[in-house]
Structure formats: structure tokens, C-alpha cells
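Record format v2
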Amino acid sequence: MLNFILKRLGLAVLVAFTVSFISFSLMFLSGDPAAALAGETASDQDVEAIRVLYGFDRPMLVQYWDWLSSALVGDLGESYYFKLPVASLIAERLQVTMLLGLCGISFALLTAVPLGVAAAIRPNSIIDRVALFLSVAGQAMPSFWFGLILIVVFSIQFGILPPSGTSTWRHFIMPTIVLGYYAMPAIMRLTRAGMLEVLSSDYIRTARAKGASEFKVLFKHALRNAIIPVVSLAAVQMGFMLGGSIVVESIFALHGAGYLAWESIARNDLPTVQALILVFSLFYIVFTFLSDVLNAWLDPRMRAG
Amino acid sequence: MYNKGNNMTFKVKALGMAAAAVAMIAAGAVQANKADGVLNAAFTKELENVDSYFNSSREGVVLQRAIWDGLIYRDPATNEYKGNLATSWEWIDDTTLEFKLREGVTFHNGEPFNADDVVYTVNFVADESNGVKTQRNVNWMKSAEKIDDYTVRIHLKAAFPAAIEFLSGPVSMYPNEYYAKVGPSGMGLEPVGTGPYKVSKVVPGSHFVLEKNENYHDSPKGQPEIAKVDIRTIPDVNTQIAELFSGSLDLIWQTPADQAEKLSTMEQFTVANESTMRIGYLTLDAAGRTGEDNPFTKLKVRQAVAHAIDREALVGALLKGKSKVVSSACFPSQFGCEQDLTSYEYDPEKAKALLAEAGYPDGFSTDFYAYRDRDYAEAIASFLNAVGIDTNFNMLQYSALRELRMKEGTPVSFQTWGSYSINDTSAITSQFFKFGSLDDARDEEVRDWLNVADSATDPEVRKENYSKALKKIADQAYWVPMFSYNTNYVYTKEIDYTPTPDEVLRFTTMSWN
């Protein structure tokens, strides 16, 4: 088991660095980093000065090695754009993103799982139809549009929620709904499908036959089995929410890590982009790992593997 | 009967109470503004560093003018130069400027302002190894020398008549002791200047709070009236507008024309439009950098391009506001920007005839590049298509297009330039026609005229040489200048403000109605 974990972790680290190398190369392909950094008002001399100052005139592999060797000893460098240590910049922005991600996934799970269970208990009932409608709508609505609709209704029409910013918990309500609603449909459909399958299985019939209460049948026997794939999916969704909340962060002016990543790519801020990619890869690795552990806890059969 | 009536009243009452509750919550959400003296404004872009020598964005200029002062000040309405931290100045020779400094000025941290601050600031920014981001703003200065506590000399590397313009713009004075201690990143987080506004909060890139400097000296900028300015970065324009509606923003700017048009119909907002120094132009590969046989090396082809584009239509339909058609390779208000030169009227038939004369009776096809304002660029490309110049449209990232233009050049590309708000032709024409890597003309005569104009101290000599250069650029159609840009300012009726044509928000000239 320990061997297995170590092997997987080693593989994951390799994946993280492969991703970081590819992204490093892509940044160079997407335009002259010195020109991007110097900005649109720069003269030739400005661009050349920056090229020398940051060492962009050296071979790309040398530059990557420089970055990698300091990153490995924990020095993520200084943001080219903000002139601040990348570590503190990311730490500050991650707080917002992590809070938003946790709220988002909680919202998604708290709405999707009960709805999925309810829909599975009475397939083709009105509840099932409503759940289907909600999930199709959630899948079809782009976040930027849904976000703006919420702002129009709750900030402008009723004036009860602030449209943007992070200063109070009320600022997080709309972003949580928008982000969570994006992850909800998949979780809900998977819960419903899993429950339907499990509910028609032999051991549920057995459980009912031996006189277990309906509550016990549903939540102890059925949901525990049906939720296993949902846990894996939620882990992936959580990783997505941390790295991919760019649109939501931009609409609600949250200044989180997703928006920072997006902007840093446009600004060719290599140290920041590289560090964020590492952090995001680590998140995926950690969440996938956690979901395996959780699954093993839910399903003793998995503990062997 | 009685019961029912009672029930009704109850329902109405409950409804009324609910409505009142909503209204109260709504009122609570409105944090503005006139009452508590806080003006809430928005930036669209994340500002990299508040230290004005280490950023290159418009937002940075806005904060710079509020936090710091220069030795000189240019009145944005009259373009007249006035003393700010200096009370007078004179040219000792072509490369030496002497300043008498204002006495009794203190920085926000209490440090008194004197010659040491000027000497430290100039020597720091002029040293290339300190890495000032926009070198052009400072690299004409060699050093500064203290004569006495309130007299200082700035030595230039070479004759540079635009020095006064730069000293009234991007070159601001920093406190020597504080700056020596904290450096650019410390200055970016806790800025200290002499300006009309002190900084009370900086969250890098996202939030800036300014407070009125009660001890602001008797500056030509005027005394600040607004007690506090709270600026948040809100990248999405729609969100900015929602904030404006909900009352938590009082002022936004750089609002797109279509949105501004809608907002102008609402009575609670003022929508002001003002031109900026930015102009849009096509640059044509006259020097043949993309190939000797490139059609744009032929004068008639370049003239055909100029005749093919209906610039009035572009301004009327797309840019709107205070934008104007420009024909010189500079912004009209800039010193030396000659206006009396060849202008090409819209005449597609003439364009076709010129193409035929140049040996392209059936037109030709070419790569066309742009990096911003896709709608403008596409409209321009379609005008070219209409006369037979078949364009292969490429929209690139700014840095990618710049790299391409530096290395190989492009046959034709749509470019813009804002002259970083410097009101002098040297900030635009001289940047592109002196054989730099972005010079698509490579005309020696133009270069030589510009060299004379950039360094002559006699304003008449400068004007004459800029005029010659600009006339030849127009005759040769090296560039096809298109239009000037404009920007929209949207603010609540509670604010009294008149924007200036240089796209710098000046909080000092804002007040509550």
C-alpha cells in the first residue's frame, strides 16, 4: 500500500513538472516575453533592457533550468509584473480562491446529492423532472451570463447583495451559487444514476426484506454505495473550481488565483504562471489522492487495492 | 366580514413591512458617497506597482498625479507650464537646467522637501541599473547636482528640449531618506509623496485608498476637495456598471461607446466624452522588410491604401465621441505636430486607379495584422478588400505582433500609440521613424530632420524640422493615420468633474455637487 502511494506520488510530481515545462515553452511561443513585460508604451531600448535584465536572451532550456532549480529549493522567485515575491502574492490570492472553491463545492454537493437521491427514489416524478430541468439549465448556462443575471436581480433590482468585492461574507453568496451551480448537474446526475442502479440491486431487496427502515435502506445501504463515483467526481470538480474559477472571479472582481493565472499568462509573467501551475497541479494530485482515501473508507473492497 | 377585513389589513401591513425591510437592506448596501465624502471609483486593469517609475499603465499615471508632484506642472487646459515643486527654472546651457525649489513643502511622512530629494530621485532613476520600467521617461537625464538647499541643477546627457514636458509629466519627486530605505517595492506598498492625496491602503493590483492631504502646498494642481477616494479593480465592465447602479461606485471610466450611450440616457449619471492622445494608424512596409517585391514598397500602392479607407465613417460609426480623423503621424495638440500636409480623401475609384498604375489592376493579396480593437481593424481591412487588396486578417497578442514586427516586419498592420500623454511630437513620430526596429519606412531624410527637431533648443527650428518630416511621411504615405481615440467617463450627478484630453483622472479637480 505504501509502495503504491509512493509510486503514485512520484508519478504525480513528474506530471506536475511536465505540465510546467510545457507551459514554460508555450509562454515563449505565444510572444516575446520582453515585449509583453515592457508594455505597449515601451521603446526598443526598454524592450532590450528588459530582455537583458531578465535574461530572456539566454536559451530557453537554461532559463527553465534556472527556474526549476530555485523552485525545487522552495524559491518561487519574484513576479515580473508586480515586483513582489510570488509566494506571498499567491498565498494572498489563494485564500479567496480556496474559500470560494470550498463554498462552491459545498453548495454543489448540498444541492446535488439530495436532489439526486430524491429523483432516484421517484424516477419520472415531478421532483425528477425539476431536478432534470435544473441540471440541464445549469449545464447550458454560461457562468458569465448566470453571474450577470444574479447581479441584475439581487444587486440592482432588490439591492440586497453587493455586486463585487470580497469584504464581507455577503460578497461570496452570488459567486458561490454561480460556481457551485456549474458543478451541480454532473454530481446530481451521477448520484441519481448511482442510486437507481443500487436501489434495484439484490442486497437492497434483501435489506428491505429483512425489515430495515426505508431511511436506513436509502442512506446506509444505498447512498453509501452510490456515492463512491460522486466522491471522485467531486474531487475533480474541486480541482477545477480552484484553477478554473477565472470567469467567476473576473465578474465578481474577487482577485483570486484563477484570475491571477489568467492575467499573468497575458502579461507573460513567467514566475507567477509557473508557480500557479505547480500549485494547481498539486491541488489536483492532493484531491485525487484524498478521494481515493475517502473511497477506501466508504468501500472496504477498495482498501485492498 | 369583519374578520376578513382584518386579515386584509394584516396582509397589507405585512407586505408593507417586507417592502420596508427590503428597502432598508437596500439602503444599507449603498455605501456612497457625498454624505461620507468617499468617492468610489473603479480601475479595469490590475496596476502592477504604485511606484510610478515601475509601472507603465494608465492607472499608474492616475495615481502618480494624485500622490506625487513634479518640479513643473502643465495646465491641461492651456498647455502652459507652471512651477510646482520648483518655483522657477532656466536653461544654463543646452544640457543644464537650474531650478529654484519651493520652500516649506513636506512629504506625507513629514520629511521636508529640499534639493537632496531632487538629487536622490534624479540620480536613482537615471541610473539604468535601477531598472526604471519606462526608460524613455528618464534616460535623457544624466545626473542632478545640489547648489544649495533650494537650488538644484539637472544635467542632461544631450540637448533635449522636451525635458520640460517630461519634468511636468512622468518625472515626480520622491523623499530621499524614505526611498533609500524602502526601495521600489516598499514605495509600491506604502507610497509617500508630496501630492494632493496620501495613500492609506494598497492591496497590490486590486484596491487603493487615497485620503486628502490637508497640508497640500499652494500647487497649480489646486487643493483637493474630495476627502477620500476608494479605488477597486473591477475587470468586468458589466460589473462596474452594476456597481454604479447599486450605488457602490460613483465613477467609472474607459467605458465602451455602446454602454456609455445607454448610460447617457439615464438621468442619475453624467457621461462625459473626451479625446485621448492615442491615435490609430496603418503602418505600411515601405522599406520592403517583408520582401523586396512587397507591393507596399510602391508609393502608388500606399497612396491607394490611404484613398481606400473612409476614415470619417470609422469615426462616425465606431469610435464616436470626440474622436477625429487625423492625417499627421502625431496627435494634433502635440508640439510640432504639423497639420498643413497631404490628406487623402476617401475615393475608392482613385484607389483602384492607383493600384492599376502601380501594376496591380486586379489588386493583390497581403497579410494584415492587428493586436487590439478588432472591430476597427476588421472595418479597415474590409475597406481594403473593397478596392481589390485582399487581406488575410491576423489578430495577434500584443507581444507576439511586436516580436514579429521587430524581427521580420509586417506588410501592413493596424497600430495605435498613446504617446504616454507627452504633448510633444518627439513622443510619437521620433519613436517610429528613426530606424528603430519598428520603423517600416527607413527614410534617412526623415530621420535626420527628426534628429534635428528632437535636440534643437530653438522652438522654431524644432517646428520647422518636425514639419518637414511629417510632410514627407504624409506625401510618401509611410503611415496612414486614421483617427484619434476617445474615452468615456461615467459618474453620478453628485460629482462635478470635467475630464481633460490627456486621459488622466484628476481627483483634485473633482468636487461634490
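Chain B has 15 helices and 18 strands.
Chain B touches chain A through 54 residues (CB under 8 Å).
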